[in-house]
């Protein structure tokens, strides 16, 4: 049903090829060489590259479909081919390629007064409330959600905590911080949180 609905709205079919290729790669990973660790180095490298590509492709699919689902008026959604190549969202973890270090945590750039968006998806059939921690570049931000009341946007501030990051020598990193806050997402739903840098007249976060 989900495929049929998305295909009807013009956003589903172009991504089916990527999903099928990722599924085929996943089937390859179940080969006994991959499971038992007896594969030769060049085979492991090929597995890693295929896995990295599959992850990036699926993240692209999830980015596009999340953007569609978060669009208020889906009847006028622009699903033209040039829009399908845009990366609407970046993920907190990115696939770097290869097989030695597949993932690295992404640092969220929180500079700028323009509204930024952080989206969370709850795949469970029940509501979830959890503390989430992200790496950011600027601690002087405001964090809020938007509630639509009679066609107007009503901002609701979200409390959060800023923590320092220490390197291997126990020195505080400059330019990177930890942002922690409670995320509440209904069952099988997407939830958007917004942020922007504090202006000079708004002060700074302690």
Automatic annotation (TrEMBL):
It comes from the Eukaryota. One of its GO terms (cellular component) is Golgi membrane. The keyword Zinc does not apply. Keywords: Hydrolase, Metal-binding. One of its GO terms (molecular function) is alpha-mannosidase activity. One of its GO terms (biological process) is N-glycan processing. InterPro entries: Gal_mutarotase_sf_dom, Glyco_hydro_38_cen, Glyco_hydro_38_cen_sf, Glyco_hydro_57/38_cen_sf, Glyco_hydro_b, Glycosyl_Hydrlase_38. Residues 17-65 form the Glycoside hydrolase family 38 central domain. This is Mannosidase_ alpha_ class 2A_ member 1. It comes from Caligus rogercresseyi.
């Amino acid at each position: 049903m989900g495929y049929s609905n998305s295909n009807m709205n013009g956003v589903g079919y172009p991504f089916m090829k990527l999903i099928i290729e990722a599924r085929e790669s996943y089937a390859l990973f179940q080969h006994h060489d991959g499971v038992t660790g007896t594969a030769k180095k060049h085979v492991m490298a090929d597995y890693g590259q295929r896995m990295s590509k599959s992850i990036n492709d699926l993240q692209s699919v999830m980015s596009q479909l999340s953007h569609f689902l978060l669009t208020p008026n889906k009847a006028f959604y622009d699903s033209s081919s040039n829009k399908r190549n845009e990366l609407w969202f970046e993920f907190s973890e990115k696939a770097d390629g290869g097989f030695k270090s597949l993932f690295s945590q992404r640092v969220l750039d929180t500079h700028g007064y323009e509204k930024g968006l952080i989206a969370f998806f709850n795949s469970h059939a029940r509501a979830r409330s959890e503390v989430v921690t992200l790496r950011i570049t600027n601690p002087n931000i405001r964090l809020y959600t938007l509630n639509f009341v009679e066609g107007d946007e009503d901002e609701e501030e979200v409390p959060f905590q800023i923590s320092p990051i220490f390197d291997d020598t126990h020195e505080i990193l400059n330019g990177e911080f930890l942002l922690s806050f409670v995320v509440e997402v209904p069952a099988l739903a997407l939830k958007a949180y917004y942020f922007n840098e504090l202006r000079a007249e708004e002060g700074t976060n302690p």
